[in-house]
Design goal:
single chain, 296 residues, mainly alpha, globular
Length: 296
């Protein structure tokens, strides 16, 4: 059961890993926040319409909080880092998410230190760094702060999603819809005030936005939030490394980019971290460290 849940959850970061090539090859330049808005708000409204379920009581503010942390705040911070830092530095900061999740498990959930997650997180971050980091990479304070803040925002979103679960009567699609719509509504004024909307959208761009909204939005986030509930945090946190690995693999397969021996070693290292983190610990986790699961 957990193996199947892990495989389905892994689809989400793989889908997000296609964002770079879709953005560069299909979408109009200079509108990354609009692309994020299109991925979140319409997808969320469609999911809510299909599920026919709205939040009740405390889930109004919980949904908004989770939507902002996982989507609404994460995307602008990600793009600030991407614009002010070389891509390799930004990707390496994102790969630090397992380590931030490990710290938040101790600080927020009051669990014992997940040393396996720390170890595999370091291995995975090192692997991603070897793939994308360059010796000539420059550092920018604002970019560094934005990159770390974005990574921390999504890490906290993962922690709280696990901690709060979801109402038992709500489907995974409906739950994802709440969070996508909340994140999209948060992004709407930011996008309108700081970036605006594309003057012209051609057919390839429409196809790109549709891919981001349906696959990178509805499908990916439904599987991701479902997986957060069903898969241990020590496993799901490292799955995020599949996103930069997918982007690197597509660059090689589609754009003809070639891996150096060091990059190839980093790719294998990151894959080893992802697989290693899925192997159950020998000792059975204590009841205190177990998180409840919630049926769809």
């Amino acid at each position: 059961m957990q193996f199947r849940a892990t495989l389905l959850t892994a689809i989400a970061p793989i889908a997000w890993g296609t964002t770079y090539i879709v953005t560069t090859e299909l979408l109009p330049n200079g509108h990354p926040l609009f692309a994020s808005l299109v991925r979140a708000l319409p997808a969320g409204l469609i999911a809510i319409t299909i599920a026919r379920q709205l939040p009740q009581g405390a889930w109004w503010w919980k949904s908004f909080t989770l939507g902002v942390l996982n989507i609404g705040a994460f995307f602008p911070l990600l793009f600030i880092a991407a614009y002010r830092l070389p891509g390799g530095v930004a990707a390496t900061l994102g790969a630090a998410q397992p380590l931030i999740v490990a710290a938040l498990m101790v600080l927020v959930l009051r669990q014992s230190a997940p040393w396996r997650l720390v170890a595999w997180g370091i291995v995975g971050a090192l692997g991603v760094a070897l793939i994308v980091l360059r010796a000539s990479a420059g550092l920018d304070t604002v970019g560094l702060v934005a990159g770390l803040a974005g990574t921390a925002s999504m890490a906290l979103g993962v922690i709280l999603s696990k901690h709060w679960g979801k109402p038992t009567e709500v489907s995974s699609l409906g739950y994802a819809g709440w969070l996508l719509a909340s994140g999209g509504l948060f992004l709407l004024p930011i996008t309108a005030l700081t970036e605006g909307f594309p003057a012209h959208v051609d057919l390839p761009a429409i196809a790109g936005y549709a891919w981001l909204g349906v696959v990178g939005g509805i499908v990916a986030y439904t599987l991701w939030f479902r997986g957060i509930r069903l898969v241990p945090l020590t496993s799901v946190a490292v799955l995020g490394l599949l996103s930069p690995l997918t982007a690197a693999a597509l660059g090689a397969l589609v754009l003809g980019e070639r891996f150096t021996p060091i990059q190839s070693f980093g790719f294998v290292l990151a894959l080893a971290a992802i697989v290693g983190a899925q192997i159950p610990a020998r000792r059975r986790a204590s009841v205190r460290n177990r998180m409840p699961t919630y049926p769809d």
